[in-house]
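Subject: Sanity check before I submit

Could someone independently write out the structure tokens for this chain? I want to compare against mine line by line before I put it in a report. The sequence has 335 residues.
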Amino acid sequence: MTQPLTLLDHNDIASSAPLLALLPTPTQSHIHAFYHSRDRRMSLASHILKRLAISHYTHEPLSRITISPSPVTKKPVHIPSNTNTQSPIPFNVSHQADLVAVIATSDPQLEVGIDVVCVNERSDHRISTRAKWLEWVDIYAEVFSAGEIAEMKAVVPAASSFTTTNGMELGGDTETRDVLAEAKRLFYAFWCLKEAYIKMTGEALLAPWLRELEFRNVRPPRPSSSFNPPKSSNTTPHRDQCGEVAEDIEIYLRGEPVRDVRMELQAWEEEYMVGTAVKRKQDGSREKDGTEAEGEVQMDGVGHLRGESRRVPWAPIKELDLQEDIMAMIGESSI
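---
Independent answer below. Compare away.
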């Protein structure tokens, strides 16, 4: 399992012509169709990174990698160039603010999903009282379960009132501002997990079972400034960026525990969280809500295959810069 991440720089798309040349012509046209330069950069990074992850396993040039919507779920899937000798590479990609993340695996029996959130990308200065926080959470009542909504509301005490709008202080204290910051991190933790799960299944936020999917024991992982990974951690190559990893997440669907999906929530730098979901299949069948079909191998809540002692491996995060790292890879080899 790989989880490479790439941070985008802020150069114009014209400086990325060598990267564009690695992509199929229709994909290049799709990228150029975006009006804003930032959107073009984000699209370029997404297309490059997911093909790079697939190429890691297939050793094919990026321009020869075919990605097409699944006829069943419309989720983008890898189409092997030779179906007699190759299996499709399961992958998923997400981007938010200036971060693009991809998850991929060589195991065709795994389904994977990933989501990135940036807790401070949008200014929520209108949330100045507890009442307004409750109103804001209620906007998403069609996305979250009743239990998730209640937990997000409970994190803000009745006495809280928030203090800033457009950078101007309105009153209150540091403790109150910290309450809002933690409330927002909890909201985005729930959002990130929900998105990663439904992207794993190939469904969208309109999935009819969305409110019946509930995450429990959710706590936002600590950002990098307040978390020092142990030296034995898999995240040590990027100690300055990596925050805490939350692994003990409980998943319920229609009130029943989901035991065949493993999820993690990784804090990245100060503002990002990356949620990942993985599900192992045995017979190739799948229910739309992601629950196991009959005859399928199940995993427990921490990713152990039932009846086996091994754990589905989670490879270390790799950070790539769109210009510096990938351009250097072009110079060193043929990708």
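---
OP: Matches mine. For the report I'm noting this point. The two ends are 20 Å apart (CA to CA).
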